[in-house]
Specification:
The chain is of the alpha/beta class. The chain is built from 13 helices and 14 strands.
């Protein structure tokens, strides 16, 4: 079954490889400089060490330090561009699309490492980036963020720094508008209201109706219930303008399920998603898991098998690359099961290689997985 699905996906991508070159997207508004670390379990020599492989092992180390303190060595593996918007935008550009990234990438000018973004990314910076200290493990990651200017980023700042006419053009020409990392953009709701008032009013309703509005809320566990409900109501309000899609991970889905008033204890993910779906006005709801993905469209539940990477090179950004594949599928007009599969393919490539796949990379990745599944 999986072999047939991969063959089908390879054929679709081969047939549509020129289509994405004429597609434009618009993504905003966060940005981080990511510092990726491994946590040393045992230092063997100046050039060799063994790292904690699982979060639970490191958690025991922390618990054992209670009342005694400890000193743990960390090793910087990579310093790279980060944040949901830049990673997502960069991944979309790798597939051949033109992307307007309105991220927090330095102000007044884009700063390193965002100057390494793909040439098909038009970087329109709205503020200074935060910093992420990400500790990588084989079964996940622990991220600690210093948010900086994003906490106070406002619609007025976005409008002034990008320019209203530039904003109108970017949104009008885009097939997909991605509003990501709602957790760290504390004024995202007023920003959306400003977009509705000053941008959407300048675009014909029939054109807006064809656009996808994609949302990734990021880890909202630190936000108040009232804030989360306000975010969800704002997303619902956009359903009257275009096609709304909400992408979550398992933790985010459970939080939203609880905030909406449901008893999450003992609920499977399909039930959690069904409850969220019935409570919101979405065209599409997806949840990406460590070993696959699930989605609901038009009230119908779909599931896709993932491609678990036992020894990941990089997990920070895996969800953004899943979103890239998912949205790529939506833009190509694929069925939801195919969109979920494409998301899993993009994510597994990124996690196993440490960088986003271009079109040729993705086809070769599918062929390799198809050979293994045969």
């Amino acid at each position: 079954m999986l072999y047939q699905q991969l063959q089908e996906m390879e054929q679709i991508l081969d047939e549509k490889k020129e289509y994405l070159k004429d597609i434009e997207c618009c993504i905003g508004f966060d940005g981080f400089i990511d510092m990726l670390f491994r946590v040393v379990r045992q230092r063997e020599s100046a050039g060799r060490f063994s790292a904690y492989e699982e979060i639970s092992d490191f958690a025991r180390r922390i618990m054992d330090s209670a009342g005694k303190s400890s000193d743990t060595e960390i090793v910087l593996q990579e310093l790279k561009l980060g944040g949901n918007a830049p990673i997502f935008a960069n991944a979309l550009a790798q597939t051949g699309m033109h992307v307007n990234c309105m991220g927090s990438m330095g102000f007044p000018a884009v700063r390193a490492p965002f100057d390494t973004m793909h040439e098909r990314c038009n970087c329109m910076t709205v503020g200074n980036p935060g910093h992420t200290y990400a500790f990588e493990f084989n079964d996940g990651k622990l991220m600690f963020g210093h948010v900086s200017d994003m906490l106070t980023l406002s619609w007025e700042q976005v409008r002034e720094r990008v320019g209203l006419e530039n904003l109108i053009r970017a949104v009008a020409d885009s097939h997909l508008i991605g509003l990501v990392n709602w957790n760290h953009i504390h004024h995202m709701v007023p920003i959306v209201e400003g977009m509705k008032r000053e941008i959407f009013s300048r675009i014909r309703p029939e054109e807006l109706a064809l656009k996808y509005f994609f949302f990734d809320m990021a880890d909202i566990s630190s936000r108040k219930k009232e804030d989360i409900l306000c975010m969800l109501q704002c997303i619902n309000s956009l359903s009257g303008y275009g096609r709304t899609a909400l992408g979550l991970n398992e933790n985010e889905a459970q939080i939203i399920h609880s905030v909406l008033g449901f008893d999450t204890e003992g609920c499977g993910m399909e039930q959690i998603m069904t409850d969220i779906w019935t409570s919101m006005k979405l065209q599409l709801l997806t949840v990406h898991l460590q070993k696959g993905a699930m989605g609901i469209q038009h009230g119908v539940f779909h599931e896709a098998e993932g491609f678990f990477v036992e020894n990941p090179v990089l997990t920070t950004g895996g969800g953004d690359n899943f979103n890239c594949g998912l949205c790529m599928g939506l833009i190509l007009g694929l069925e939801l099961r195919q969109c979920l599969l494409l998301g899993c393919l993009c994510s597994s490539f990124y996690v196993s290689r440490g960088y986003s796949a271009n079109y040729s990379d993705l086809i070769n990745h599918i062929r390799k997985l198809g050979f293994q599944a045969a």
